[in-house]
Design a protein that fits this description.
AB_hydrolase; hydrolase activity; AB_hydrolase_1; Alpha/beta fold hydrolase; 11 helices; alpha/beta; globular; AB_hydrolase_fold; 42% helix
């Protein structure tokens, strides 16, 4: 179906679904500054073919969901854990979306910041999570999952002024943090950047989302208390969220851990069958 805008208990969220509405629901949660289209259309279609009713959405402050207010200070977020909103608020947004869709529980899959949100959602609403898959993410502990200096600087680069500048910068950053073990598909990332720009950029929102990450708590103890089928997927060559973050997440959850050689901070097309098979295996438990 085409994307639609939903009023979800005080927040406007842009949503799209794939597949048979009678199939088990699966919620995809995307990462920092990334609209829902970063879950590639074909990837979503393949998940639907695997037997899920797939839902993707724009988090607040990105794409066509509601843009927030408030100024974010990254030093204050890190030092004082002060931010306009938290990862918990973003997790509650996901719950409001499921309410608006009349979905009681779902398989939940999150990548990067979306993995953090998915973890928070499972902690806050454990009965609403059938299975949890955390991809290229971390626990919030400040000793694991740290970026390389070069990747961290790339995330803090000044925002581009024109469409072409944005496309060029996003392609460059995608190459930097991407998967060295796989061929870089520049045309794919260029098209993604163009679609992202055309759906609307919100530079202030990026800083608010980043502040939510920097101000987040260590979820390790709460993740240990969860009892649900879970899977952690992480690339061994991830420069943005070091693989130690994935290992720590798997230990805390008691989850299956799939370390993908040569994968960085993206999901190369060649990895899709492996990821989809892992999600399906988890769901059949």
């Amino acid at each position: 179906m085409t994307e639609q805008t939903l009023e979800a208990d005080g927040i406007t969220l842009c949503h799209e679904s794939f597949g048979d509405p009678s199939a088990p629901p699966l919620l995809l949660v995307m990462g920092l500054a990334a609209p829902m289209i970063w879950w590639d259309d074909e990837f979503c279609a393949q998940l639907a073919e695997a037997g899920f009713h797939v839902h993707r959405f724009d988090n607040r402050d990105v794409g066509r969901s509601q843009w927030w207010t408030g100024r974010a200070s990254l030093p204050l977020a890190y030092l004082l854990r002060s931010a306009p909103y938290s990862l918990g608020d973003l997790a509650d947004d996901a719950g409001k979306l499921l309410d608006a869709l009349d979905i009681g529980s779902a398989h939940v899959v999150g990548t990067s910041m979306g993995g953090m949100i998915a973890q928070e959602f499972a902690i806050r609403h454990p009965r609403r999570v059938r299975t949890l898959t955390s991809i290229m993410s971390t626990t919030g502990a400040r000793t694991v999952g740290l970026p390389s200096p070069r990747a961290a600087l790339a995330m803090l680069a000044p925002g581009p002024r024109t469409r072409e500048d944005y496309v060029t910068q996003l392609v460059r950053t995608s190459r930097l943090i991407g998967s060295p073990g796989y061929v870089f598909d520049e045309d794919h990332f260029r098209e993604r950047a163009e679609r992202t720009y055309d759906r609307g950029l919100n530079p202030a929102g990026v800083f608010r989302q980043l502040a939510a990450i920097l101000s987040s708590r260590d979820r390790t103890a709460d993740l240990r208390r969860l009892s649900l089928p879970s899977l952690v997927i992480h690339g061994t060559a991830d420069p943005l969220v070091n693989v130690s973050g994935g290992r720590a997440t798997a230990r805390a959850l008691g989850a299956d851990l799939d370390l993908v050689p040569g994968m960085g901070h993206d999901l190369p097309r060649e990895v899709w069958p492996r990821v989809i098979a892992g999600i399906k295996r988890l769901a059949t438990r």
